[in-house]
Amino acid sequence: MQASMRVSTTTVHDLLFAEDCALNTVTEEEMQKSMNLFAAGCAAFGSTISTGKMVVMRQPPPSAEYIAP
């Protein structure tokens, strides 16, 4: 038996607010480096990162096996 595979993709073209930010990384190390650079940039401009409003979205790589929720 072969199950059909459905792949859904969404590309973010516009961020809704000036303070919105999207970090696109593959590894945990890249994410940490990007977050460090982002935090340093925010500090340089006197901005505060609000972790209460933060949302993390993760998309597994296309080669990852599908696991039903």
Walk me through the structure:
The longest helix has 17 residues, at 28-44. 0% of the residues are buried. The chain has a domain at 27-58. It is an all-alpha fold. Helix content is 25%, strand content 0%. The radius of gyration is 16 Å and the shape is elongated. The protein has one helix at residues 28-44. The chain contains one helix and no strands.
Count of DSSP E strands? Answer: 0
**Rg over CA atoms:** 16 Å
The helix content is: 10-25%
Shape: elongated
How are helices and strands ordered from N to C?
A: H
Largest sheet: none
Number of helices: 1
Intertermini distance: 21 Å
* Poorly predicted spans: none
Question: Could you tell me the strand content as a percent range?
Answer: under 5%
Decide which structural class fits the backbone. Answer: mainly alpha
Query: Can you give the mean pLDDT?
Result: 77
In short:
The chain has one helix spanning 28-44. It has 69 residues and is mainly α. It is elongated, with a radius of gyration of 16 Å.
What is the secondary structure topology, with strand pairs?
Blueprint: H1 28-44
List keywords for this structure.
mainly alpha; 1 helix; 69 residues; Reverse transcriptase domain-containing protein
